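Quick check before the chapter quiz. The format below is the same one you will see on the exam, so make sure you can read both the input and the output lines.
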Amino acid sequence: MRKLALPALLVSACVLPFLVSDYRVFQLTLVIVHAIALLGLNLLTGYSGQISLGHGAFYAIGAYTAAILIDHFHVPYWATVPLAGIVCLGAGILFGLPAGRLENLYLALATFALGVSLPQILKYRHVEPWTGGVQGVTLTKPEAPLGLPLSRDQWLYYFSLAVMVVLFAGAWNLLRGHTGRAIVAIRDNPIAAAAAGIDVARYKSLTFGVSAMYTGIAGALGGIAVQFVGPDSFSFFLSLRLLCGIVVGGLSTISGAIYGALFIQFVPNIAGDISKAAPLAIYGVLLIAVVYVMPSGIAGAVNDVARRMRAFGRTTEARSSSKHRENQPGRNHA
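Here is the expected output.
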């Protein structure tokens, strides 16, 4: 069943755009975008143990990289996505080199400063010709190539889905290898990891760069999907939303990025439907309830249920085998 779950999930994801409206397809595209960003942040915070309160800055860098390349240099939209990832990879490594020497709250404060200051920098008059200042940059959704019978929203959904599959597979392979074990060892005990020969500073900066790359790719896809990139869209609350997403979805899990993306995309809308006067209060109550009921995140709760079902199945099978042996004629005669 576990082997069939992933193909079934991919098939369902491919069929879904034909069953819902274009607006729902747009929302599902944003879920994919957020899932990529949450996976990047989870690599840094969940697996590496480095707390970031400013990952929305890398999301903004990726979005503006794609917007500037499309608007000023007429680069194809599909080419801006890897270019945004490369730019954010370099920015993440450069920021991670000094930040890797900071621990816990000090690193959180450094990333907090990055997340708060970047929107103001984007409004600076010397960069305004590129970023558009407070007016931002307006983009257009791409059409489906080769005459495919797909709407713009459907095509962008499939394009984002393909990018997500590649990035999730890359993260899975990264975490299963030597690099992933070194990252987790640094999180669990950096002193023991250094004594074992692991270059702690190098791996921390590398993890920061890869995390920023994932978030930057998500920013590029998000900017194209929303069709607008502006500094006020990347406030500090974006970083908080991403942090809430990985906590709710499940730290140190790959599937938790998808659960967290669904939460931060749809739960605010549900909170607004419940109360028009105080949607943030309802959102806070729902957030506290989820964290209280599922302290290990949604992915952890799903894994616990699956583990209990497997244990129940093994117990039932053992009891059935025992009764079958007891009812055998030869055994009863003996």
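If your answer matched, good. The two ends are 40 Å apart (CA to CA).
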